[in-house]
Amino acid sequence: MDTPISPSGKKEKVREMFDGIAYRYDFLNHLLSLGTDILWRNKVLRLARKMKPLEILDVATGTGDLAITLSKCRPVSITGIDISEGMLQVGRKKINDKALSNLINLQPGDSENLQFPDSHFDLVTAAFGVRNFEDLSRGLSEMNRVLKQNGNILILEFSTITNPFWKVLFTFYFKWMLPLIGRMVSKHDFAYRYLPESVGIFPYGKEFLGLLQQAGFQNTRQYRLTGGIATIYTGQRK
């Protein structure tokens, strides 16, 4: 049985994990969330449209679902980075099939050591990726660094339900049913046990807003989705 991920070895373990499930990742995402993940990304899109970004960086882009969704807000370019080449390969095929290769570029990259100049992007986004950072504070600071002054951040991440009744039901599904289904479909047991573990220890709500502020963001705000299963966090570089 796999042991919990230690902070020092988390990055490489996460890379191996996502390489191992890349071919089934999109199918399982939509199946296990009952399609709700699509609605959540569309909420991110609605917020992004108000910001009218020209240059977008999508951090921990995975198979590029959020980058593809954000193409609808008509930016000049979208760059997606991820440490998993397996996920990027799946994403590139999707982008090519949708004739978006001239707009979206997916490339390998470390979210905690961004290889972009200061003040380069209008918007930095991440969907279900920041909880996988080995050093969360460093990753958020890097996202702030590459933003232009008054540029925006949009982060979609799992959080915790506060309603006691729904929390019991969701916890049962998240901790027991989701890993079982994920293991049956992907044949990768650890990946879908890691998900509830990583969500359970991730700082959410006001605690995460505080981390954004420490990283240099102002005007921070949160939008709780589907009773708190997920949350969108926004902020602006000072």
Notable features of this structure?
238 residues, alpha/beta, Rossmann fold, 7 strands, globular
Your description of this structure?
This protein has 238 residues and is of the alpha/beta class. It has a single domain (8-160, 203-237), classed as Vaccinia Virus protein VP39 (Rossmann fold, 3-Layer(aba) Sandwich). The chain is 47% helix and 22% strand. Strand 2 (77-82), helix 4 and strand 3 (104-108) form a beta-alpha-beta unit. The radius of gyration is 17 Å and the shape is globular.
How would you briefly describe this protein structure?
The protein has 238 residues and is an alpha/beta fold. The chain contains eight helices and seven strands.
Topology, please?
Blueprint: H1 10-32, H2 36-51, E1 55-59, H3 65-70, E2 77-82, H4 85-97, E3 104-108, E4 121-127, H5 136-145, E5 147-158, H6 164-186, H7 189-201, H8 206-214, E6 217-225, E7 230-237
